[in-house]
Amino acid sequence: MSVAVAIPQSSPGQVHSRLANREPAWVRWTLISLALVFLTGFLVLPLAVVFSQAFSKGWSVYASALVESNALAAIRLTLLVAAISVPLNLVFGLSAAWAIAKFDFSGKSLLITLIDLPFSVSPVVSGLIYVLMFGLQGWFGGWLADHDIKIIFAVPGIVMATIFVTFPFVARELIPLMQAQGTDEEEAAIVLGASGWQTFWRVTLPNIKWGLLYGVILSNARAMGEFGAVSVVSGHIRGLTNTIPLHVEILYNEYNSAAAFAVASLLALLALVTLALKSFLEWRLHASITPSK
Fold this sequence. Notes:
The chain is mainly α. It is 78% helix and 0% strand. α6 (123-134) runs parallel beside α12 and α13 (244-253) packs antiparallel against α14. The model is unreliable at 1-8 (pLDDT under 50).
């Protein structure tokens, strides 16, 4: 008489854990040490230098650098550009991800390629493209000048350049998440009588909310810290078209290092806050797609 023996199945994570534990201790500690040295040298120390230099001449110099009129203008412009570009990227990214993940249509591969285009094009090149199109000698420059419409060296050009370099982030976070979730829940909701709008608000959106927030945070961080594309289209007009990164560059080139590092510390704080939110959302996103036991 044969006896059936049930062999417990191991999850991929358990398999990888067992394989890792087979490595000698010196290998694990060497890899961990190399990672820590790399992170310390290229992440922790630069951030520490930014804050130490920002406060090197005291709190009064630090505060005065932040409340100076050109600095305040740069902060306001940076917030304005982010407030315009991030919501537009949210709408585009959500729409593109929904179309790619939930529907089959001709041109899907081309759409995915176009979404990835800003990752492969230098930001400086993207800025030059807008100058070529909307500059005084550009394709539409004459018409814009005749109608007294300013895009290059003005806020609209900065917004357009920022949108170009940031629009993949939301879509690229949502596409794999929505593809992994499939369409079963949406189809069930429609069979039960829900409209397309109700299905989106009550089924699709709750399932992707953490991934959506993750993409928005990354898009916002890139929008506020973008330098290359904005530098080309801004004209570097103090108090008018300088964002925070451009203002830091001008201060540093004028050998006003304390003020430059003081303003740069705002971007460093943004990076730290983004990192903390990113870690939290990664945890929530992993928890939302991992089946409960």
